[in-house]
Backbone:
């Protein structure tokens, strides 16, 4: 990952210094911050390819740093670095537009694999170094501009990353859009959780995770009238999910 510009926002001095040292050994250009306000200022002023963001920060929580950046329209990829037991905050971060998260304690190999996977999705030219075989493989780019697809009570616009359900527009996150795109591309077929983890997140060796189920739950809140009786995204118990709606019409 030579010449990748990384911002590490982490308040624990030893971990911050260790990350900076190891990432610089990988050829990255690393800037660091030890609190939320400083990290936010550096993220606003810098031109980074990727941000590693702790959640428990003095001065301003990591979630607030991310929320501010996304409200300002800044799309720099963010990987949340979270302590165990912080699932609610991790979910909040993903909903705000974080690209992935790693749970402390983590190994350098895992972190580098996650970084490469995120960079492949968001900045392919900066992820050209060989990826390790232990954690991640190439993942697809975010959904390309495509047609407006219409279904009963639902309109999907992949160009704008939006869905319109019963006249109410909802913004899709990158992961939600990628999941929905994959389900629609294979409409009527069962898409396994493993397939989604490989194609959307880029994993080769799959973690034990509820990542897919959590994202499906949030996606259903946007596309379904009744999340307890979905008509578009159907659960196939023990296997995965299926997109079941019949397309009405579409245009480009």
Residues:
């Amino acid at each position: 990952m030579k010449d990748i510009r990384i911002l590490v926002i982490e308040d624990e001095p030893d971990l911050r210094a260790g990350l900076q040292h190891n990432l610089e050994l990988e050829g990255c250009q690393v800037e660091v911050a030890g609190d939320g306000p400083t990290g936010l200022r550096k993220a606003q002023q810098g031109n980074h390819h990727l941000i590693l963001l702790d959640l428990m920060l003095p001065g301003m929580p990591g979630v607030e740093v991310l929320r501010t950046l996304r409200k300002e329209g800044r799309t720099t990829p963010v990987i949340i670095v979270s302590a165990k037991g912080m699932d609610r905050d991790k979910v909040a971060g993903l909903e705000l537009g974080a690209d992935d998260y790693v749970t402390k304690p983590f190994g350098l190999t895992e972190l580098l694999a996650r970084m490469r996977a995120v960079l492949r999705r968001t900045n392919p030219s900066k992820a050209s170094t060989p990826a390790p075989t232990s954690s991640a493989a190439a993942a697809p780019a975010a959904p390309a501009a495509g047609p407006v697809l219409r279904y009963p009570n639902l309109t999907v616009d992949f160009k704008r990353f939006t869905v319109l359900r019963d006249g109410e527009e909802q913004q899709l996150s990158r992961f939600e859009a990628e999941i929905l795109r994959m389900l629609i591309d294979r409409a009527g077929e069962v898409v396994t959780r493993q397939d989604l983890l490989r194609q959307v997140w880029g994993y080769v060796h799959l973690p034990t995770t509820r990542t897919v189920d959590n994202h499906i739950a949030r996606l259903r809140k946007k596309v379904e009238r009744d999340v307890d009786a979905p008509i578009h995204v159907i659960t196939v118990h023990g296997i995965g999910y299926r997109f079941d709606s019949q397309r009405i019409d579409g245009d480009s």
About this structure: The two ends are 37 Å apart (CA to CA). Residues 108-122 form the longest helix (15 residues).
